[in-house]
Specification:
mainly alpha; 262 residues; 0% strand; single chain; 11 helices; 77% helix
């Protein structure tokens, strides 16, 4: 049986990351949607902050919704891109070339993570630079966003690989994801601090709330705010379940389209 050295695996992974990066850049509409849309909506809904900056807790409370949106959107986009590749037969070809589906999946996740870091930095520079009064505040805000991205994004990206197991048409799946994203965003934007079981239920079913809770914990630790955090242990348990579900899903993913899709 032909074995592939670690050096060869790293080279294969690097080449796929380069390929997926070029594919991402070539899609100008999606790139603009990821980078510009959250910033436009944020300043459209909070334009008054430019002349009257809010308190730190209010600032972090509201920016957490957009932070969670960016992380959710780019995390779920990775498996959706893999679905596109599978539907047009490219995923099967890539597996034949590299000898493993895992290098393809991992490189797609890494590519989306890089795009996510860029999107988060852009949001941090624009929102923090135009609203926060001091450079130290901007750097702390940037640190909170980067740490939240590093903690939440890998778990979410792995978790959403279960979408590749659904026997649903590609167009139907994308519509379902868009509806869920809008629903989760509206829930997060209009229920900032639900107490008790209601808050825990939303935390369990809404990944955006998990990201927001992580950002709350980080801001409480770094900025010394008093953001409403539910159960820290529950949040880390959810992240562990995301990773576990993702690993199990990766093992079950097929590189060819399922027959008889509905």
């Amino acid at each position: 049986m032909l074995t592939v050295s670690l050096r060869q695996r790293v080279r294969i992974l690097t080449e796929y990351i380069r390929l997926f990066t070029k594919m991402l850049i070539s899609n100008k509409f999606s790139l603009g949607w990821y980078l510009l849309f959250p910033n436009i909506i944020f300043f459209f809904t909070h334009y008054n902050w430019l002349s009257s900056p809010p308190d730190p807790e209010v600032f972090y409370l509201h920016t957490s919704v957009f932070t969670a949106y960016i992380i959710f959107l780019l995390s779920i986009d990775a498996p959706l891109n893999l679905i596109r590749l599978r539907e047009n037969g490219a995923l099967k070809v890539f597996k034949f070339i590299s000898g493993s589906k895992y290098s393809i999946i991992l490189s797609q996740l890494i590519t989306q993570f890089i795009a996510m870091v860029i999107a988060m930095l852009l949001f941090a520079v624009l929102a923090g630079g135009l609203i926060l009064p001091h450079w130290s505040d901007i750097l702390l805000f940037m640190a909170v966003l980067m740490l939240a991205c590093t903690i939440a994004a890998p778990a979410l990206s792995l978790f959403f690989t279960w979408l590749l197991l659904l026997r649903v048409k590609q167009e139907s799946l994308f519509t379902m994801v868009s509806i869920l994203l809008l629903l989760f965003f509206l829930i997060s934007a209009n229920n900032f601090a639900l107490p008790g079981w209601a808050g825990m239920l939303i935390l369990l079913i809404n990944p955006l709330e998990v990201v927001r809770q992580i950002m709350y914990m980080l801001s409480n630790g770094l900025i010394h705010t008093s953001m409403p955090v539910h159960d820290q242990l529950l949040i880390f348990i959810i992240l562990f379940l995301y990773i576990l579900i993702g690993i199990l899903s990766m093992r079950a993913i097929r590189v060819t389209s399922s027959t008889g899709r509905i």
